[in-house]
Model the fold of this input.
Amino acid sequence: MKVCVTSLGQNLSDNVDPKFGRCAYFIIVDTDSMEFKAEENSAVTFSGGAGPAAVSQIAGFGAEVLLTGAVGPNAFRALSAAGIKVVTGAKGSVREAIEDFKKGNASFTDSATAESHSGM
Done:
């Protein structure tokens, strides 16, 4: 399964970025092999619409699940429309967030967990 984790850096040892739409990087991880690739978030500097633009970017990577700190309402609607499941409250390193997810210690959210434009 391909999982996207918002990250402050480009490696599994870097910490989860609590923001989604304006996170620094997306780490796309194959949960079976733990192979990963890091991609800069192209929406990080957008003045508006960062969440939906970020959704478009991670959907293009084939992500099935997003692990992040929080998502706003516009991003959540776009994620739902793209069929990407969302886990919020992720913390620690990217590797720790993935391991928690694989162990079943993370649950999917069914609504936004941040206010609009909270990442600005």
Q: What stands out?
A: DSSP finds three helices and five strands in the chain.
